[in-house]
Task: inverse folding
């Protein structure tokens, strides 16, 4: 029997985010110690401005996962980037991958990532990349379990 708080993964669906999802997505981004330290109130107008910029940019999608009862339980941003390396390969970047705290460790993230990879392949991407904060060892285990390899060192500079 399926736990009503965690519907079957078969009931999980994906769609592009809508403006009304933005406060809930912002709350998911802040729902851990790292996010809580850097995010603001989920009704901050900066989130809606960023959402609109994502919507306006070709090859940039904000995707949500919905549980069977219609609740948004996960999100990720998928960015397709043409490049010269790898013989002109399109690469896909995954950012802001989050699963609602109440749905973590139930397979939502794995299904969401598989969906994003399928979308990237359908658009001609030949590789998928992402970064993960060094302070997130659980996330690193998750990414390795999804078939990703630790292949590069990442560098960032706050501006």
Result:
């Amino acid at each position: 029997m399926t736990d009503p708080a965690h519907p079957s993964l078969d009931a999980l669906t994906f769609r592009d985010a809508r403006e009304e999802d933005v406060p809930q997505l912002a709350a998911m981004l802040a729902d851990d110690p790292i996010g809580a330290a850097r995010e603001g109130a989920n009704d901050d107008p900066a989130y809606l401005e960023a959402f609109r910029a994502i919507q306006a940019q070709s090859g940039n999608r904000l995707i949500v996962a919905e549980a069977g009862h219609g609740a948004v339980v996960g999100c990720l941003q998928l960015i397709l980037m043409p490049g010269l390396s790898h013989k002109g390969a399109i690469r896909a970047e995954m950012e802001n991958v989050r699963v609602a705290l109440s749905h973590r460790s139930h397979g939502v993230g794995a299904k969401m990532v598989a969906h994003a990879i399928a979308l990237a392949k359908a658009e001609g991407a030949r590789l998928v990349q992402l970064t993960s904060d060094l302070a997130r060892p659980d996330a690193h285990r998750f990414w390795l379990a999804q078939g990703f390899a630790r292949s590069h060192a990442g560098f960032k500079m706050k501006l």
In short: The beta strands are 13-16, 60-66, 72-82, 90-99, 125-130.
